[in-house]
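Attaching the record inline, Q. Sequence:
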Amino acid sequence: MTSPVEDAAKRALDLALAATGLVITAPALVLIALLIRRSSAGPVIFRQERVGRYGRPFQIHKFRTLRVDALGPLVTASSDRRVTPIGGVLRRTKLDELPQLWDVLRGEMSLVGPRPEVPTYAALWPAAERETILSVRPGITDPVSLMFRNEAEELALAADPEQHYRTALLPRKAQLYAEYVQTRSLAGDVAILLRTVQTLLA
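Structure, as predicted:
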């Protein structure tokens, strides 16, 4: 567990890196927005309700990667036909997550923390793990995200991707999220950020 001083330092680091990240990636953000606009009809930014710290709902922001007229499960496999051509690239490179830097600045998210779930899935977390997970801000990256980086490919192999997510992936991820929260540290979070950058550039 972290101390109040570490928590304050983490928030300061979040603000500094998120603001810097938005400035540095501004040209890429504009280019991605233009490509999405030309690729398919619909908004550039995808907003969805997620469960945040202390169970408070918030609107997460991502670049839109799915066709707006396509209905389907809440999870997305790599073979999902709802994914637009540019959306597939954004998902593989994780560039669709860049708008969440704004969510970090808003105070809804952290750079490092358990990934925020939709209410339907968050309700399936065991009570003890749910309380632990929701005691911190959700994050853009964390050890679980790195471990399950190829989740979309695993879902594509399942006969029922959503059922596989509910019964196989969700319980394991909840356990690992809780373990992260219980052992987190500022130095550990910095290491996770460096691992994430390294993974994205590999």
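The first strand starts at residue 45 and ends at 51. The mean pLDDT is 96.

More tomorrow.
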